[in-house]
Amino acid sequence: MDSINMTAEVDLGVLVEEVVEAVTAGHAFAKLQHGSILSTTSREHGSTGTGRQIMSVNSLSGSESNAQESSEGSVSVLLDIEPKRSWLVRTQAGALRRIIMNLLGNSLKYTGSG
User: Could you tell me which residues belong to the region Disordered (predicted)?
Assistant: First the structure.
């Protein structure tokens, strides 16, 4: 039985750039939402037995004050892809994307400033 060939020729520069843009945009959005819908507590809104939270309409409309202002410094992400004749590589693009997403995601998650 032949195995499915999961490898393909991909431009590594483009792949890394796409993943970095997506992860940093997601991190910026999550940081922007921190303190509103994403950081609600079960004490404020009640909790169901299944771990779900019941949110008030005020929290969804933004009329509650944001108790946790971000006092942390910002994190800068610099991506410098050296000009080269070809960044084409034969690899499993999905697996490589997941590795880069995990590395960058954890770096952004656990870095306060820099």
Answer: 39-75
Q: Can you give the pLDDT at residue 56?
A: 39
For residue 54, give both structure tokens.
């019941």
- What distance in Å separates the CA atoms of residue 92 and residue 104, rounded to the nearest whole number? 19
The number of residues making up the chain comes to 114
pLDDT, tens digit, for every residue of 74-92? 888 999 988 877 899 999 9
DSSP readout, 36-65? TTTT--HHHH-B-TTS-BPPPHHHHHT-S-
Q: Enumerate the β-bridge partners of residue 88.
A: 11
What is the Cα–Cα distance from 93 to 11, expressed in whole angstroms?
A: 9
Give the CA count within 13 Å in the CB-facing half-sphere of 17.
9
Q: Under DSSP, is residue 11 helix (H, G, I), strand (E, B) or coil?
A: strand
Query: What sections of the chain are H helices per DSSP?
Result: 12-33, 42-45, 57-61, 93-110
- Selection from 114, 110, 103, 101 nearest residue 26 by Cα: 101
